[in-house]
Design brief:
The chain is α/β, with parallel strands linked by helices. The strands form four sheets. A six-stranded mixed beta sheet has the order 6-9-10-3-11-12, sandwiched between helices.
Length: 290
Protein backbone atom coordinates (compact mmCIF):
# COMPACT_ATOMS: atom_id res chain seq x y z
CA UNK A 1 0.00 0.00 0.00
CA UNK A 2 1.50 3.31 -1.13
CA UNK A 3 1.75 6.00 1.52
CA UNK A 4 2.70 9.66 1.61
CA UNK A 5 4.24 10.48 4.94
CA UNK A 6 5.58 13.66 6.46
CA UNK A 7 7.67 13.69 9.60
CA UNK A 8 8.17 16.69 11.89
CA UNK A 9 7.47 19.26 9.17
CA UNK A 10 7.99 22.86 10.17
CA UNK A 11 7.90 25.91 7.94
CA UNK A 12 9.13 29.38 8.79
CA UNK A 13 8.79 32.59 6.80
CA UNK A 14 11.31 34.98 8.31
CA UNK A 15 10.47 34.95 12.02
CA UNK A 16 6.99 33.44 11.69
CA UNK A 17 6.51 29.68 11.96
CA UNK A 18 3.37 28.64 10.06
CA UNK A 19 3.67 24.85 10.46
CA UNK A 20 4.72 23.30 13.78
CA UNK A 21 6.18 19.79 13.69
CA UNK A 22 3.54 18.19 11.45
CA UNK A 23 3.38 14.38 11.39
CA UNK A 24 0.91 13.04 8.83
CA UNK A 25 0.29 9.76 7.03
CA UNK A 26 -1.78 9.68 3.82
CA UNK A 27 -2.86 6.16 2.88
CA UNK A 28 -3.59 4.83 -0.57
CA UNK A 29 -7.16 4.64 -1.83
CA UNK A 30 -8.86 7.22 0.41
CA UNK A 31 -10.46 10.61 -0.16
CA UNK A 32 -9.28 13.06 2.48
CA UNK A 33 -10.75 16.41 3.35
CA UNK A 34 -8.27 19.01 4.60
CA UNK A 35 -10.12 21.73 6.47
CA UNK A 36 -8.78 24.81 8.18
CA UNK A 37 -9.38 28.52 8.47
CA UNK A 38 -7.61 31.04 6.27
CA UNK A 39 -3.98 31.25 7.33
CA UNK A 40 -3.99 27.86 9.07
CA UNK A 41 -1.22 26.60 6.75
CA UNK A 42 -3.20 24.32 4.41
CA UNK A 43 -1.69 25.43 1.09
CA UNK A 44 1.78 25.58 2.61
CA UNK A 45 1.45 22.00 3.87
CA UNK A 46 0.14 20.72 0.53
CA UNK A 47 2.93 22.43 -1.39
CA UNK A 48 5.52 20.83 0.91
CA UNK A 49 3.92 17.39 0.48
CA UNK A 50 4.42 17.70 -3.28
CA UNK A 51 7.90 19.28 -3.19
CA UNK A 52 6.72 22.63 -4.54
CA UNK A 53 7.93 24.31 -1.36
CA UNK A 54 10.85 23.23 0.85
CA UNK A 55 10.21 22.51 4.51
CA UNK A 56 12.32 24.38 7.05
CA UNK A 57 12.79 21.12 8.95
CA UNK A 58 11.43 17.62 8.54
CA UNK A 59 11.00 15.27 5.60
CA UNK A 60 8.32 13.95 3.25
CA UNK A 61 8.42 10.39 1.90
CA UNK A 62 6.44 8.44 -0.68
CA UNK A 63 6.76 4.70 -0.17
CA UNK A 64 9.88 5.34 1.88
CA UNK A 65 11.61 7.52 -0.73
CA UNK A 66 12.16 11.24 -0.18
CA UNK A 67 9.89 13.46 -2.27
CA UNK A 68 12.23 16.43 -2.56
CA UNK A 69 14.07 16.55 -5.93
CA UNK A 70 13.04 12.98 -6.74
CA UNK A 71 11.32 12.89 -10.13
CA UNK A 72 10.57 9.16 -9.88
CA UNK A 73 8.45 9.90 -6.83
CA UNK A 74 6.98 13.15 -8.17
CA UNK A 75 5.57 11.23 -11.13
CA UNK A 76 3.09 9.75 -8.63
CA UNK A 77 1.97 13.10 -7.22
CA UNK A 78 -0.19 15.94 -8.51
CA UNK A 79 -0.98 19.21 -6.72
CA UNK A 80 -3.53 21.09 -8.81
CA UNK A 81 -3.91 24.54 -7.33
CA UNK A 82 -5.67 27.76 -8.28
CA UNK A 83 -4.24 29.32 -11.42
CA UNK A 84 -2.70 32.77 -11.24
CA UNK A 85 -4.05 35.23 -13.78
CA UNK A 86 -0.94 37.37 -13.33
CA UNK A 87 2.73 36.59 -13.94
CA UNK A 88 5.88 38.48 -13.07
CA UNK A 89 5.69 39.99 -16.55
CA UNK A 90 2.05 41.07 -16.27
CA UNK A 91 -1.20 39.34 -17.27
CA UNK A 92 -0.97 35.58 -17.74
CA UNK A 93 -1.45 35.33 -21.51
CA UNK A 94 -0.94 31.57 -21.76
CA UNK A 95 -3.83 29.89 -23.55
CA UNK A 96 -5.69 27.03 -21.88
CA UNK A 97 -4.62 24.59 -24.60
CA UNK A 98 -0.97 25.57 -24.05
CA UNK A 99 -1.34 25.04 -20.30
CA UNK A 100 -2.86 21.61 -20.89
CA UNK A 101 -0.04 20.80 -23.31
CA UNK A 102 2.52 21.48 -20.58
CA UNK A 103 0.59 19.25 -18.17
CA UNK A 104 0.37 16.55 -20.83
CA UNK A 105 4.15 16.39 -21.07
CA UNK A 106 4.78 16.66 -17.31
CA UNK A 107 2.50 13.88 -16.04
CA UNK A 108 3.62 10.47 -17.41
CA UNK A 109 0.21 8.84 -16.98
CA UNK A 110 -1.79 11.68 -18.53
CA UNK A 111 -5.19 10.58 -19.90
CA UNK A 112 -5.79 12.55 -23.11
CA UNK A 113 -9.23 11.02 -23.61
CA UNK A 114 -10.31 12.16 -20.15
CA UNK A 115 -8.88 15.60 -20.85
CA UNK A 116 -10.93 15.87 -24.05
CA UNK A 117 -14.08 14.58 -22.34
CA UNK A 118 -13.80 17.06 -19.47
CA UNK A 119 -13.11 20.00 -21.79
CA UNK A 120 -16.31 19.15 -23.66
CA UNK A 121 -18.29 18.54 -20.48
CA UNK A 122 -17.28 21.90 -18.98
CA UNK A 123 -17.68 23.62 -22.36
CA UNK A 124 -14.23 25.11 -21.83
CA UNK A 125 -12.78 27.36 -24.51
CA UNK A 126 -9.21 26.07 -24.81
CA UNK A 127 -8.24 29.02 -27.01
CA UNK A 128 -8.97 31.47 -24.21
CA UNK A 129 -6.11 33.02 -22.26
CA UNK A 130 -5.75 32.24 -18.58
CA UNK A 131 -6.13 35.89 -17.57
CA UNK A 132 -9.46 36.09 -19.43
CA UNK A 133 -11.09 33.17 -17.63
CA UNK A 134 -13.76 33.56 -14.96
CA UNK A 135 -13.07 32.14 -11.51
CA UNK A 136 -15.30 29.18 -12.30
CA UNK A 137 -13.46 28.47 -15.55
CA UNK A 138 -10.13 28.65 -13.73
CA UNK A 139 -11.43 26.01 -11.32
CA UNK A 140 -12.46 23.83 -14.25
CA UNK A 141 -8.91 23.90 -15.60
CA UNK A 142 -7.49 22.83 -12.23
CA UNK A 143 -10.02 19.98 -12.06
CA UNK A 144 -9.07 18.78 -15.54
CA UNK A 145 -5.39 18.84 -14.61
CA UNK A 146 -6.04 16.88 -11.42
CA UNK A 147 -8.26 14.17 -12.87
CA UNK A 148 -6.47 13.72 -16.21
CA UNK A 149 -3.06 13.52 -14.50
CA UNK A 150 -3.96 10.04 -13.25
CA UNK A 151 -1.48 10.64 -10.41
CA UNK A 152 -1.68 8.08 -7.61
CA UNK A 153 -1.98 10.85 -5.03
CA UNK A 154 -3.86 13.86 -6.33
CA UNK A 155 -4.33 17.06 -4.33
CA UNK A 156 -6.83 19.79 -5.15
CA UNK A 157 -6.78 23.16 -3.39
CA UNK A 158 -10.23 24.83 -3.38
CA UNK A 159 -11.33 22.99 -6.55
CA UNK A 160 -14.94 24.24 -6.53
CA UNK A 161 -14.23 27.94 -5.95
CA UNK A 162 -16.38 29.92 -8.35
CA UNK A 163 -18.36 26.92 -9.61
CA UNK A 164 -22.15 27.00 -9.53
CA UNK A 165 -24.07 24.28 -7.70
CA UNK A 166 -24.56 22.14 -10.83
CA UNK A 167 -20.84 22.21 -11.69
CA UNK A 168 -19.95 21.40 -8.09
CA UNK A 169 -22.23 18.37 -8.15
CA UNK A 170 -20.63 17.31 -11.44
CA UNK A 171 -17.19 17.58 -9.86
CA UNK A 172 -18.03 15.44 -6.83
CA UNK A 173 -19.63 12.81 -9.08
CA UNK A 174 -16.54 12.74 -11.31
CA UNK A 175 -14.30 12.50 -8.25
CA UNK A 176 -16.20 9.55 -6.80
CA UNK A 177 -16.38 7.78 -10.17
CA UNK A 178 -12.64 8.15 -10.68
CA UNK A 179 -11.88 7.03 -7.14
CA UNK A 180 -14.08 3.95 -7.51
CA UNK A 181 -12.61 3.04 -10.89
CA UNK A 182 -8.93 3.52 -10.04
CA UNK A 183 -8.45 3.54 -6.27
CA UNK A 184 -6.52 6.81 -6.51
CA UNK A 185 -5.92 8.85 -3.37
CA UNK A 186 -7.39 12.36 -3.28
CA UNK A 187 -6.81 15.20 -0.83
CA UNK A 188 -9.37 18.01 -1.13
CA UNK A 189 -8.83 21.32 0.61
CA UNK A 190 -12.05 23.34 0.70
CA UNK A 191 -14.01 25.93 2.64
CA UNK A 192 -17.32 24.59 1.26
CA UNK A 193 -17.53 21.89 3.89
CA UNK A 194 -21.11 20.67 4.13
CA UNK A 195 -21.66 19.54 0.55
CA UNK A 196 -18.29 17.76 0.51
CA UNK A 197 -18.70 16.02 3.87
CA UNK A 198 -20.22 12.86 2.38
CA UNK A 199 -17.29 12.56 -0.04
CA UNK A 200 -14.56 12.58 2.61
CA UNK A 201 -13.63 9.17 3.99
CA UNK A 202 -11.25 10.85 6.40
CA UNK A 203 -11.07 14.43 7.54
CA UNK A 204 -8.04 16.41 8.70
CA UNK A 205 -8.53 19.58 10.74
CA UNK A 206 -5.58 21.98 10.59
CA UNK A 207 -5.57 24.75 13.20
CA UNK A 208 -2.88 27.41 13.55
CA UNK A 209 -0.23 25.25 11.90
CA UNK A 210 -0.99 22.06 13.85
CA UNK A 211 -2.95 18.92 13.00
CA UNK A 212 -5.91 19.10 15.37
CA UNK A 213 -7.34 15.75 14.34
CA UNK A 214 -7.25 13.14 11.57
CA UNK A 215 -10.09 10.67 11.72
CA UNK A 216 -12.68 8.70 9.77
CA UNK A 217 -15.38 11.25 9.02
CA UNK A 218 -18.40 9.17 10.05
CA UNK A 219 -16.73 7.81 13.19
CA UNK A 220 -15.91 11.37 14.21
CA UNK A 221 -19.45 12.65 13.65
CA UNK A 222 -20.93 9.64 15.46
CA UNK A 223 -19.21 10.66 18.68
CA UNK A 224 -19.98 14.38 18.54
CA UNK A 225 -23.31 15.83 19.72
CA UNK A 226 -24.91 19.21 20.35
CA UNK A 227 -26.57 19.57 23.76
CA UNK A 228 -28.89 22.47 24.59
CA UNK A 229 -31.39 23.46 27.26
CA UNK A 230 -31.54 25.40 30.51
CA UNK A 231 -28.09 26.37 31.69
CA UNK A 232 -28.23 24.40 34.94
CA UNK A 233 -29.48 21.28 33.14
CA UNK A 234 -26.80 21.48 30.45
CA UNK A 235 -24.10 22.02 33.07
CA UNK A 236 -25.23 18.95 35.02
CA UNK A 237 -25.66 16.75 31.94
CA UNK A 238 -22.30 17.67 30.38
CA UNK A 239 -20.13 17.58 33.49
CA UNK A 240 -17.11 15.38 32.91
CA UNK A 241 -17.34 15.36 29.10
CA UNK A 242 -15.05 17.12 26.61
CA UNK A 243 -16.84 20.39 25.78
CA UNK A 244 -16.44 22.82 22.90
CA UNK A 245 -18.07 26.01 21.67
CA UNK A 246 -20.19 26.95 24.67
CA UNK A 247 -23.04 29.32 23.78
CA UNK A 248 -25.22 31.19 26.26
CA UNK A 249 -28.41 33.10 25.49
CA UNK A 250 -30.25 34.29 28.58
CA UNK A 251 -30.90 31.27 30.78
CA UNK A 252 -30.30 28.85 27.92
CA UNK A 253 -27.03 27.18 27.08
CA UNK A 254 -25.68 25.02 24.26
CA UNK A 255 -22.45 23.07 23.98
CA UNK A 256 -20.81 20.65 21.57
CA UNK A 257 -19.57 17.46 23.18
CA UNK A 258 -16.86 15.22 21.77
CA UNK A 259 -17.28 11.79 23.31
CA UNK A 260 -14.41 9.34 23.62
CA UNK A 261 -14.61 6.27 21.36
CA UNK A 262 -17.19 3.92 22.87
CA UNK A 263 -18.38 6.52 25.38
CA UNK A 264 -22.17 6.97 25.75
CA UNK A 265 -24.15 10.08 26.65
CA UNK A 266 -27.33 9.26 28.62
CA UNK A 267 -28.37 12.41 30.50
CA UNK A 268 -30.91 12.37 33.32
CA UNK A 269 -31.60 16.07 32.84
CA UNK A 270 -34.15 17.57 30.44
CA UNK A 271 -31.82 18.57 27.61
CA UNK A 272 -32.05 18.43 23.81
CA UNK A 273 -29.47 16.24 22.07
CA UNK A 274 -28.83 16.68 18.34
CA UNK A 275 -26.23 15.37 15.87
CA UNK A 276 -23.47 17.69 14.69
CA UNK A 277 -22.65 18.36 11.05
CA UNK A 278 -19.04 18.42 9.89
CA UNK A 279 -19.24 22.16 9.29
CA UNK A 280 -20.65 22.86 12.74
CA UNK A 281 -18.05 20.60 14.33
CA UNK A 282 -15.30 22.52 12.54
CA UNK A 283 -16.73 25.80 13.85
CA UNK A 284 -16.92 24.33 17.34
CA UNK A 285 -13.31 23.16 17.32
CA UNK A 286 -11.64 25.88 15.26
CA UNK A 287 -13.87 28.92 15.66
CA UNK A 288 -13.92 31.49 18.41
CA UNK A 289 -15.76 30.78 21.60
CA UNK A 290 -19.16 32.46 21.69
Amino acid sequence: MSQLTCENITKKYKNKEVLHGIDLNIEQGKIYGLIGRNGAGKTTLLSILTAQNPATTGSVFYDGEPVWENQRVLDHLCFSRELNTLSILGPNNIKVKEYLQVARTYYPNWDSEMEKSLVEMFNLNVKAKINKLSKGMLSMVTIIIALASKADITILDEPVAGLDVVAREDFYRLLLDEHTATGRTFIISTHIIEEAANVFEEVIFLKDGDILLKENTQDLLDRCIHVSGKEEDVDAACAGYEQHHVEKIGRSKAVTLMLAPGEAFVPEEDVTVQPVSLQNLFVALCGREA
